[in-house]
Structure formats: C-alpha cells, structure tokens
Amino acid sequence: MPMKGQSEATEWLETNRWERGVSYIPYPDEMMVRASHVLKTDAGVFVADPIDVDGIDDLFAEFGEVAGVVILLDRHKRDSAAVANRHDVPVYIPDWMSGVEEDIDAPVERMHQQLPGTDYGVHKIIKNSFWQEAALYGDEDDTLVVPEAVGAADYFLAGDERLGVHPMLRLFPPKKLTRLDPERVLVGHGDGVMEDAAEAIDYALRGSRGRTPGLYAKNLKSLVLG
Length: 226
Fold this sequence. Notes:
Elements: E1 13-18, E2 21-25, E3 36-41, E4 44-48, H1 56-61, E5 66-70, H2 80-87, E6 91-94, E7 108-111, E8 120-127, E9 132-138, E10 143-146, E11 150-151, E12 164-165, E13 184-187, H3 197-206, H4 212-225
C-alpha cells in the first residue's frame, strides 16, 4: 500500500454525505487516506483542503457554485490553487497562519473569526513554529471540519477509537477541541464521524496518552511488515 497516491486520480470514494455537503477520498488505497470536503453554505460551495480529481467538479456542482477554497492546515496546500483558479475564486486562509500564502499561485483572502458569508466559524487549534491548524465549525448543523489534529485513518486509531489524535500529538492532545460540541466531524485523513461526534472526540482526547504505546506498536508493526 503506497503512503500517498502518485498518479493523477481519475475517480474517488465518496464519504460523509449529508444535506449540506460531502467528503471525497481521491486515493482510497493509499496509507494516508487523504480526504477533502465540499461544504454548502448560503454564500455558495466551499471546498476545504482539496485534492484535485478528474471530474470532481461534477460533485461540487451537486451542491451549488463554488465560492471559495479553504486551507485549514499550513501543510495542506494540496491542489488549492488549481481548484480556485479553475473556478475563478479565492483561496481562504486564517489571518494568523503564516508561510502559506506565498506558495499559493491564486488569489488569497484572509479570514478572521468567520468564513465570509457563512455560518462556519474559524477556530485556532494549534499554532507553533512546527504546526498551524484551524478548524471550521458550522453553527447551523454542528458540523466540525478538522484537517489533522484528529483523524480516522488506521494509523490514527488505537483500540476501539472512532477518532484518534494524530500520532505526533498523542502526548499533548489538542484540548481546544473540547470547547466544541459537534454532531458530525469531517477529518483530513479517513472517513468522518457522522453521529455523536462530540463523544468520539472526548473519548479520543481523554485516552490519547494511555493508548499511545499501543498505537505506536501497531504502526511500527505495519511499517515493518508492509
């Protein structure tokens, strides 16, 4: 199983469909299981942390006209510029996030506490010299979008977790996520959790440190055995 898909993706796996959006995984067989999200709002469709796929515009169009692209993690530039330029829309980046705008070959807009014209608030989850991450929270239907701090790909999960804290954050889990009370959570790696997401986040954070040795052992075994 490759760590990351290398060739151009021509099909995708759809996940997390609900009334106001959908997620898609362009390379279902890759180890990283990268996911992107289509969010329907009153201001149009916003695509979060997109990976471009041949024909993906048809999926966007099911929810309306694309109004913008959103980057929530400094490392998740992905195909943001390509998608934004094709739809003639800006790329939105949190106003406190540095080291991203200069690498985006597309118009960039900064967002403060809100994704403009929408019910999605912008929440700072992590900001240090190694990691800058924001989350979106939709007040209308309690939808949380988290790109990296928690995930649902196998290498995030220990024991019976539905969501797991990122392996590099396990010893110091992102407690800011406990301030939110989502019904569903969409993640940047793996399928999201579409019911009782707040409970899944709480369980992941409370047991993060205690389940770390088991997760590390599982991931090491996976790497060694392929």
